[in-house]
C-alpha cells in the first residue's frame, strides 16, 4: 500500500512513541502575567449549597489529571516544563502548564480545587468520594486510538469506575454510594485523537471506513455504548463535550496543511468534520435522554474557534503555535526540561503543539459556565 505523504511525515513520530513504549514494557495558580484571569475566576465562584456530591471525569488528555503517570506508556507529561504554572509549579501529569477545565469546574461548584487522577494510590477516601478523573491522555472513543500508545481505553475507564463503586460500597455502603453517584456530575471529553491521530494520520481505519461519515457513525456507536454504561451505573447528569476545530491544532497544521511554516492556517475541511461530528453528537444525546437522566452537550468548538478568529479579544498573540519548543510539533516527551519555553504562556492559546494553555482552558470554562449552571440545577 502506498501511504499519503502526510502519513509518511507523521510516521516517525508514531514509531518513536510505539518503539519507546515497547522498550518500557508496553496542573491552581495562574502565572503572574495572568493574574487578571485569576482574579476574575475568584469573582465567578458561587456556592451550590452542596448540590453536587462529586465530579467524575472520563476521556483524553484534555481532562487527564495524571492517570498516565501510573501506566506503561510514552504518552506522559509528569516532568517540566509541564505544570510550570500549576500550584507550586508541580508537573502533575496534566498535559498543559496549569489547570484544566475540570479543575475549574470542581472548584466552581465548591467541591475541591483539583480533580485528582483515579490511579493515584495515595488518594484518601474523602478525595475519592468527591470525585476523580479516569481519563487518559491519547485515548479516544475508538479503542484503536488508545492502543497506539497503550493508554487507557474508554471501556477500561468505565471498568475503573465500576471498581471505584465497589471501593465506595465497601466503605460507605451501597445506599450511600448510590446516592452519591446520583448527585454527581459526570464529564466526558474525547474524540479529537480519533480524528487527528487515528483516522487522518494512520491508514488502519480508512481501510474499513472509506469515508469520514462512516467513521463518524462508528464513533457515535462508541459514544452511545459508553454513555449507556455510565447510566446503568447510576449516572444521572452527564455532560459530553464536542470536539474542537481540530484542523487548527498546531501539530495538525504542521503535518497536514502543507503550510507547516508560513503562512500557518487552519485546515477548514477538518474543522468542517468537527462541526458535523458535533451535530451528530447533539442529536444522539437528545435521543438517549430518558426520565431521570439529563444529558448535556458541552460546546467547546465555538469558544475555541472564536479565540482563533479573534485572538486579541482574549489577550492572545499566538494561536497557531505552541509555547513549548518550536511550537510546531512538540508534545509529551518532545516537550521536556531541555525545551525552550515562551516567556508568557498566557499569550499563547496552545501550551504545546496539541494541548491548550491554562489561559485557554480558563476561557473555555467561562464560556461554558451557563451550561454548567443549568446542568447543576438539575441535581
Automatic annotation (TrEMBL):
Pfam families: Lipase_GDSL. Residues 1-25 form the signal peptide. GO terms for molecular function: hydrolase activity, acting on ester bonds. Keywords: Signal. CDD domains: SGNH_plant_lipase_like (cd01837). InterPro entries: GDSL (IPR001087), GDSL_lipolytic_enzyme (IPR050592), SGNH_hydro_sf (IPR036514), SGNH_plant_lipase-like (IPR035669). Gene3D superfamilies: SGNH hydrolase (3.40.50.1110). PANTHER family: GDSL ESTERASE/LIPASE EXL3, GDSL ESTERASE_LIPASE. Belongs to the 'GDSL' lipolytic enzyme family. This is Zinc finger protein. It comes from Solanum pinnatisectum.
